[in-house]
Amino acid sequence: MFDPVTLKLQVDPLILSALREDITSEDVTTNSVMPEAVQGEVDLIAKEDGVICGLQVFQRVFTLLDENTKVEFFAQDGDFVKNGTLVAKIYGDIRTLLCGERTALNYLQRMSGVATYTRKVAELLKDTKTTLLDTRKTTPNNRIFEKYSVRVGGGKNHRYNLSDGVLLKDNHIGAAGGVKEAILAAKEYAPFVRKIEVEVENLEMLKEALEAGADIIMLDNMTHDEIKTAMGMINGRAEVEVSGNVTKENIARLTDLGVDYISSGALTHSAPILDLSLKNLHRI
Fold this sequence. Notes:
Radius of gyration: 23 Å
């Protein structure tokens, strides 16, 4: 769950922005059929198997619209739910339930989808020493939700944003004039508490990175044999991350290499939603 400070300062503004996107002036349909406040309840039901994630955000959509809305949960983030599971009941002004339905479900379906996909990939690494990481390939303005979902699914977060750490990629190296030059510049500029990670695409770049003293080396889009050779060259002198089009369909080819980290943008950019629905709304 998000702590109270993060919820108020980081999460609430994003939810309110999403609600404003969906309701620019009024909910014409709801106001047509429900001109006055009437109390009601509705069921949140899973329509396929998967990992539930984002229940706090789901609830917050409704309570930001009306603080008197109540939600009774029958599951918690990280639980695996089956098709047909009653996940929650929501009680409140029917107008609030109708106005918030789509936004609340959009968050919950997306977050649950990321957690479900991540769980499937993480399971493939469970008997290895390798940690599964996400990337910055997230939906704009949804990073806080998607990275949280990766953690719920069993993965770990790479740097949150550009202010969070030094990662020298191909274009940074090109701008600096070479691997060595980029690492030395980063060591000169970045605070000493920051580790310096550098992306390398071949063994010659790797050699330069090792000589310049990189803390973490990302082996990008290398073949299995190249990674195996690279691991011998590194020999414990730096932490090792492997990246490049890693998905649940192909990650198994990397599990025998003993790398420290495998990062996958697919955790956030390719996870399908988990189908959930609000059903059985009625007056009480």
